[in-house]
Specification:
The complex is a heterodimer of chains A (about 160) and B (about 325). Chain A is mainly α. Chain A has one domain: Up-down Bundle (Butyryl-CoA Dehydrogenase, subunit A, domain 3), CATH 1.20.140.160. Helices cover about 60% and strands about 0% of the residues of chain A. Chain A starts with 17 loop residues before the first helix and ends in a 7-residue tail after the last helix. In chain A, about 40% of the residues are buried. Chain B is an alpha+beta fold and about 325 residues long. Among the domains of chain B are: about 50 residues; about 160 residues, no CATH class. In chain B, strands 2, 3, 4, 5, 6 and 7 form a six-stranded mixed beta sheet that branches. In chain B, strand 4 and strand 5 form a beta hairpin. In chain B, helix 1 runs parallel beside helix 3. About 20% of the residues of chain B have low confidence. Classes of the chains: A mainly alpha (about 160), B alpha+beta (about 325). At the A-B interface, helix 2, helix 3, strand 1, helix 7 and helix 9 of A face helix 1, helix 3, strand 1, helix 4 and helix 5 of B. Strand 1 of chain A pairs antiparallel with strand 1 of chain B.
Chain lengths: ~160, ~325
């Protein structure tokens, strides 16, 4: 069994001053990269979200707004075409034994909402309470989406078979 | 979190459906001991749930690996730099991915377009001659407005056409009388030999009629300011002499003034010369003409105003019916 509770994660409880905005680049770029599978587009969407976050009043819940803005932007994006990433190594350093093939296949089966829940919860590892608040969904819905997405993703990988 | 305990008495086992939905919680180890046992029991007995659990674990492990992905520092810096709007648009166009030749082509196109726009919009001619204080336009003819206003009522007041019309050289009144209006009317307009002469005749008759009707001749003459040199030269062997005169005129810078060429063969043995020439060259021309004929050029007033230094001449060179040598 995998214990996710013990895993360390970066502190996202930041105020929206220019220095703190920098710490949002990683989660945002990862979210857009894995959701869009298009490096150029993910950079653009990251910049766009950061620009939106910069306009927020000081003291706003940056983490929650980051999830909200990024999710809205991704859901609005109608182009679901999965691009073959050529220059991944330039911007994103993937683990050595990781293959993106199953993830690309997973994109063909998954719904956007399930993908969003999975990415924020298990890939970027944002606390569940923040996700629920930002996405405005119940705990049960969120967990159901994550579980459903995991089963679909797992059917593409054969690590334990 | 409070867990609701399952019944101990007549306890029911959880169904596969419920077990399936509890798998995620089971994998995360967030179930209470009782439900954990119940799920484990189902997992032992049901292969479908086992497969489902394996898939779930596979997925979680894959997500773990995805979460280890790092973002390059260079990417973070680039994103920070590109957060301006202009860079965002440029990147959206994927400018950096375009072929170099194509980039240069577009840049050259933009520069050319801007140049064309600037050259069209800016009044460069005025800007260049701004320091001169003089308008760069060449004055070909200048009309005194006051004088023109005086002649506004005259018959030629509204004639602004620059082209010169060929006209007959002024002859004695007896000959003019013979060439009166009916001649022009009887001949067809497109007769090749005398196309302009016939038009002039009709025009002359119509204008003369109009002038006589509107104003007396004296007032019309008083208001004309231009001048014309007219003449009639009787020469021996006009066929040979006429081209020489024509060549001389061209040499002196003469240019045709009417619809026909200089030295046009009007009728057999009559050559028609209607042209403009610099005033300074008039003497040379008169010297040449005196070599062949005793005729003279007479200065007359004319409604048409010529530019300064340019004069208009109209004369004919005709075969002398009585050569010098004959008795």
């Amino acid at each position: 069994m995998v214990d996710l509770s013990t895993r360390t994660r970066p502190d996202h409880n930041l105020k929206n001053d220019p220095v703190d905005i920098k710490s949002l680049v990683r989660p945002l770029s990862l979210f857009f990269f894995f959701s869009l599978m298009n490096e150029t587009k993910s950079i653009h969407f990251t910049i766009k979200t950061i620009e939106k976050l910069k306009k927020l009043k000081p003291g706003s819940d940056l983490n929650g707004m980051m999830i909200k803005f990024a999710t809205e932007l991704f859901l609005k994006n109608e182009n679901t075409e999965v691009y073959i990433t050529k220059n991944v190594g330039e911007f994103w350093v993937l683990p050595r034994d990781l293959e993106l093939g199953p993830w690309k296949e997973f994109h063909k089966k998954i719904s956007k909402k399930e993908l969003v829940s999975l990415l924020w919860g298990l890939v970027i590892k944002i606390p569940e309470t923040e996700i629920l608040k930002a996405l405005d969904v119940s705990q049960g819905t969120h967990r159901f989406r994550v579980a459903s997405a995991l089963k679909k993703l797992g059917s593409n990988t054969f690590l334990l078979k | 979190m409070e867990f609701i305990k399952l019944k101990k008495h007549k306890s029911r086992e959880i169904s596969d459906f419920v077990a399936s939905h509890l798998l995620f919680e089971y994998a995360r180890n967030t179930l209470d001991p009782e439900r954990k046992k119940a799920v484990e029991k189902v997992l032992e007995t049901t292969p479908e749930i086992q497969n489902e659990f394996i898939r779930l674990i596979n997925g979680m492990q894959y997500c773990e690996k995805l979460s280890e992905t790092l973002v390059n520092d260079m990417a973070i810096k680039q994103i920070e730099l590109q957060s301006s709007q202009v860079n965002f648009i440029v990147n959206r166009l994927r400018w950096h991915q375009w072929p170099l030749g194509f980039k240069w082509l577009i840049e050259a196109g933009i520069v050319t377009l801007m140049l064309v726009l600037v050259l069209n919009v800016l009044p460069l001619n005025r800007i260049i001659h701004l320091g001169d204080g003089v308008d760069s336009q060449n004055i070909i003819a200048e009309v005194d407005r006051k004088k023109r206003d005086l002649g506004a009522d005259g018959p030629m007041a509204n004639e602004e056409k620059p082209d010169f019309a060929d006209e007959e050289p002024r002859k004695p009144e007896t000959t003019v009388a013979t060439h009166s209006a009916p001649v022009a009317e009887t001949k067809p307009k497109d007769e090749p030999k005398k196309p302009m002469a016939s038009q002039v005749k009709t025009a002359a008759t119509s204008t003369s009629a109009a002038s006589s009707a509107v104003l007396p001749e004296k007032s019309a003459q008083a208001k004309t300011t231009g001048q014309i040199f007219r003449g009639q030269f009787l020469v021996t062997n006009a066929e040979m002499v006429s081209p020489k005169i024509k060549d001389k005129i061209k040499e002196l810078g003469g240019q045709k003034a009417g619809g026909v060429e200089i030295g046009w063969l009007k009728t057999p043995n009559v050559y028609y010369f209607h042209f403009t020439i610099p005033e300074a060259k008039l003497g040379e021309l008169e010297v040449l003409l005196k070599e062949y004929s005793a005729g003279r050029l007479l200065k007359e007033t004319h409604p048409r105003v010529m530019p300064d230094g340019i004069i208009r001449l109209l004369f004919t060179v005709e075969e002398n019916p009585e050569p010098k040598g004959s008795p």
